[in-house]
UniProtKB/TrEMBL annotation:
Highest taxon, organism lineage: Archaea
Domain VTT, residue spans: 37-160
Pfam families linked: VTT_dom
InterPro entries xref list: DedA_domain, VTT_dom
Annotated source species: Halorubrum californiense DSM 19288
GO CC annotation: plasma membrane
Keywords of this entry: Cell membrane, Membrane, Transmembrane, Transmembrane helix
TM regions (residue ranges): 9-30, 42-70, 141-165
Membrane topology: Multi-pass membrane protein
Protein name: VTT domain-containing protein
Residues annotated as signal peptide: none
Location relative to the cell: Cell membrane
Length: 182
């Protein structure tokens, strides 16, 4: 049985395609919490698209662009308006996380932004201390965010393609008529 999140993800992908992936990744990048698990939605979109490069490329681009737009929005809000997104109940980032992210940024600079974006669980959290640091420009932050998000989406793409290939193989083994009957 498919879980409720995965089922909702499949419905969103079937209805809105890559636009759904863009919105969910933008919300994740903006630290707004998880409306839907972004990883589930991405893999579901890849499986729905199949294994053709032309079909999965929009999903990949939508995820990377969405995450970059969301993180850049947080960066700009903190920098321009001195906003504190952690004061919102939707943003699940505590002070300890912000302090740890600031230490990463102090030690490694912008490569830490790219590296943290490539790792599930730390994605986007360096937007807050990056915006507070006066030496980090918005375009440089966006470029680092984009690189890390591309690495993350690339790993998810590999998982999604493996699942899609498995589904295609299973359909080939048992026959399309049997799968349709299920």
């Amino acid at each position: 049985m498919i879980g409720a999140h995965a089922e909702t993800a499949l419905v969103l992908v079937g209805t809105y395609g890559a636009a759904a992936v863009f919105v969910v990744f933008a919300l994740e990048g903006a630290l707004v919490g998880k409306v839907l698990p972004a990883r589930t939605l991405f893999v579901a979109a890849v499986v729905a698209a199949g294994v053709e490069a032309a079909a999965v490329a929009p999903v990949f681009v939508a995820a990377v662009a969405g995450a970059t737009v969301g993180q850049s929005a947080v960066f700009a809000a903190v920098r321009r308006f001195d906003a504190d997104p952690t004061s919102l109940p939707l943003v699940p980032v505590g002070e300890a996380r912000i302090d740890g992210a600031a230490r990463w940024l102090d030690r490694w600079g912008l490569p830490a932004v790219a590296a943290s974006n490539a790792v599930p669980g730390t994605r986007g959290w360096l937007a807050l201390p990056s915006a507070s640091a006066s030496s980090v420009s918005a375009p440089r932050f966006a470029a680092a965010s984009l690189l890390g998000s591309a690495a993350y989406a690339g790993a998810l793409l590999a998982i999604g393609l493996a699942v899609a290939l498995g589904v295609e193989s299973a359909v080939g083994l048992v026959g399309a008529d049997l799968v349709a009957a299920l």
